[in-house]
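seq as requested:
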Amino acid sequence: MTIARIGILTISDRASRGEYEDKGGPAIHAWFTRVLTSPWEPVARVIPDEQLIIEATLIELSDVENCSLIVTTGGTGPALRDVTPEATEAVCEKMMPGFGELMRTASLKFVPTAILSRQTAGIRGKSLVVNLPGKPSAIDDCLNAVFPAIPYCIDLIEGAYLESDPEQCKAFRPAHAKPR
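struct tokens:
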């Protein structure tokens, strides 16, 4: 079985300068460690809120590091330096707006400011890119909401096969989908 590579990209000016502890990247890593049962390895990066750097890093994680899934944290709000969705859209061939819609719906159950989030997702080659918020509890809420669709999406774009512990978060695959 192939080891899935998952890009974990923290986008934060302060964390990239060492002025702030990155909590988003470790929260994503912990979530996948708890949920995935198939072999995987993280490819983690911490970078500033600079669109060209975000774009270059997404391209590197997809095209060079061969990550089937790239999960970003940070830069999805309305602040002037929040440009993660723009960078994602710039490097992806197909946008997957349902991911953002579902993440906002899930987050609204906990905080009314979820409508300010601009989370999105897209496909670049054989990589699915998913933008998550920066707060660890919101990361959990959002991954719990969208992960059931992620393994099958990655199957469809011919990425690595992901399996999860159904007690933690059950992935959905249609009956006709065959394990690889």
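The longest strand covers residues 4-11.
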